[in-house]
Structures are given as C-alpha cells and as structure tokens.
Write a structure and sequence with these properties.
This protein is of the alpha+beta class and 478 residues long. The protein contains 13 helices and 18 strands. A hairpin with a 2-residue loop joins β4 and β5. The longest helix is centred in the first third of the chain and has 23 residues.
Amino acid sequence: MTDTVRTASENSRQNSAGPLEPELRSAVEKELPRTLADLCALVRIPSVSWAAFDRAEVRASAEAVAALVRDIGVFDSVTVTHAGIRGADESGQPAVLATRAARNGRPTVLLYAHHDVQPPGQDEDWDSPPFEPTVRGDRLYGRGAADDKAGVMAHVAALRSLAAATDGDIDLGLALFIEGEEEFGSRSFATFLAENRDALRADAIVVADSNNWNVDTPAITTGLRGNVTFRLTVSTLAHASHSGMFGGAVPDAMLATILLLGTLYAPDGSVAIDGLTSHDAATPPYDEDALRQETGLLDGVSPIGHGPILSRIWSQPSLTVTGIDAPTVANASNTLTPAVSVQISVRIAPGQSAQEAAGVIEAHLRSHAPFGAIIDIDDLDTGEPFLVDTGGWAVAETRDAMTAAWGAEPVDIGVGGSIPFIADLVREFPEAQILVTGVEDPDSRAHSPNESLHLGVFKRAVLSEAFLLGRLNARTGH
C-alpha cells in the first residue's frame, strides 16, 4: 500500500500522447455548450433524497439522466431501477444502470456518480436561488452543480466525446451506475450490488465524487475517512420541573449533555476518545492561511487539533455535533429539561473499522455519563474508511490522462469526508482497481449554501475522463 499522499512528479515517467487525443479534445470542446446546458437542466430538478422531501423529484432526476445516457447511443441497456433496503419494508431511491459488453479483449470500466443532492438549507443564505443555476464569473452556482450532477455530466460528456471520436466503434466495456441516494446514506446500495453484481463487474471503477487540489491542479483521492453517526439522548428527569424551585439540587438533561459532550474533546479541540486511531501518512504543504481562506475561519478564531493541518483533516478522527433537539431560545422557559437529544457525526481515520470505532465511542459515552444520567444511542449508521492501492495500471493511465488534460501532474490527496459505499465495491469486486476523481475544487462548498462548480475545472475533468476512456478503449492485456 502506498502512502496516502504523494505527488505524481515523485513518480514521473515519459508520457506519450494517448490514442485519439486530438479528436477527443475537439469533441469535448464542441460539446461543451450542450454539456453545460444539460447540467443546468439537471440542477433545476430538486432531487433531494432525504426522507422529508418529495421522492417524485428524485424519480424525475433519474429519468432525466437515463434520457441523457440513452441519447449517447453506446449502451446495450439503460434502465431506471430500485433496490430494497435491508431491514426495512421499502425500496431505495431510483438509480440509473447502463451496460455495454467489452469486445476484442478490452477491459470494462464502471463509471459511478450520483444524481441526488443535499437539502438546500435556507434560501436567504444563497446569493441566487439554489435550484436556479446561475453563472457568476467563472463559476456555476446551484445545489448539485458540483456535488454531484457535474460528476454525472462528466461521465456523459466523456462518453459522448468517445463516441464522436470513434464514430461509435467502441471496444471498451462500459457500466454506468448513477445512484439516487448517496446523500441519504446509500441505504439500498448493498442490495443493489448484490442484485446487479454481474452488470457492475469491471476491471476499473471510476468514482467521480471528490475534489481537485486547486483550480489548476488535478487530484486522485487515495484516502477517505470513514464515519459513525448516531443520535444520543441524555435523560435525567421523569418530567420537567421549575428551575427556580429545584435548580441546584437535581441535574437537568441540558447540564448533563453539556458536560458529557465536553468529555469528547481534548483542550486543543481534537477528539479525546480512547481507542480511536490515526493513520500515519505524509501530506503536501498546506498552511493556516489556506485553511482560513477555504473555510471562512473568523479572525481571532484559532484552528483546532495538532499535527499538520491536512493530517488533522485526512488522517485523524474528528467529531461534530451536527444537531441538538432542545428548547429554542424563543421558547425558553424557566424549566429543568428532562431529556436532550443530539446528532453526532464522527469521522474515523483510514485503518480502523467502523464497527470498532462505534464500540469505543459508545463505551466512552456510557462511562462518562455525569450524575448517572441515562444514555440512549439509536439511529446508528457506519461507513468504512478507504485507502487506495495506487500501483495498478488503471491509476497509471489516469495520471497520464490527467496530465495531458490539465497540463499539470495530479496530486494524490486524502479527503476528510466519507464515501462509505466504496468499501462495498471493494468487497464485491476485490480485483477491480478503484479510481476516485472529481469535479470539485476547494471553493466548491459542496453541501453548503452557494455551492458552485468552477467551469474551467469541469472542462478539464471532462477532458481527463475522455482521455482515460480513449486509453482504455485501446488497451489490451489488462
């Protein structure tokens, strides 16, 4: 296993032009206006996959993607399909599955992206409506403009260009899987894999759902943190009581919760849970000024944690309280609160299993409950971390394709976020090489208001994938 982070220049090699490179470059350029128009049409569909939102919009998004895929004209089969959710009497959100058999000894590549999006949040936090794609400067703004409808369109545009450059005479085997519930935990993903294993089997898998180093430098993601999320409920009283009459004698749930949450952090803000591990990997240069610029960290507020900044984000655990169910300030009364619930998201470092991490987190919470408070943990969800073996031929082909498209060698990066389904792909297809690429850059603000796509990055990402597909279409002896 290679280090999680490494620049491609450390492993430089002679990079000859790939097959059909001039034709592919011309086709990408010619198709770009149509590609962006199709992307805008997808962004206008509010395909939020969370339970509280309209499933019909996710279905409309899937049908729109399927129509784009059918129009490419290279697939033997294109379907919109569902899979059941294990342990639940319901099906997951609709996905698009397309396949084409390999010919003449060529490899098969599986292209993955997702067409569902995060909730938009408050409209007033956006500078333009979240589902009305808007160009300002060199960026396209809108929910899903980057994460991950641009990933969907990168696949579509690269395939269109390959079809144009070859006049449709393609030997490369293709499988395209556009998921519909990645933002809601990929709840039916394991079932979908089991039901469609043969259709999804591939020599290489391209997951277009990650970042680039910056707007001028591409990246291959080689490390991802896993996650443990759950709801924690702290209870101390059978019912609410007057805070003036009994405060100071009995602990309310708010007090117990505040004290308990405080035990989860060390004084420097890092996670203080015994048993959570870190991953030892080198990181490229990245300073506090860059962190402040990319995150909006306020003047006077210091970063948290220890060690190199990127190590804190990529290779160490982190813990965030993402929600609290408690009386609002507007509804506050002089009352001792009997129970408080919080939503907790823990990112775990590569190298530790999610189940092991969940166990040590629960043990910490139960052993540190103040005043004997009653602890309940439910809605537990886990996702495994991931490390990529970068020694295979598919990674080498990807590096060459990116260098040709961007005019810069790619950087190997870790990502602090999680893509749990990759562990499922590795389990089902252990021989396949996993390539995690993407269309985002440090200013994309995925999941946040004013999410955006840098149009130059998008063009180069499409060109990279077109070059990669051209190389694989000419490859034998894989």
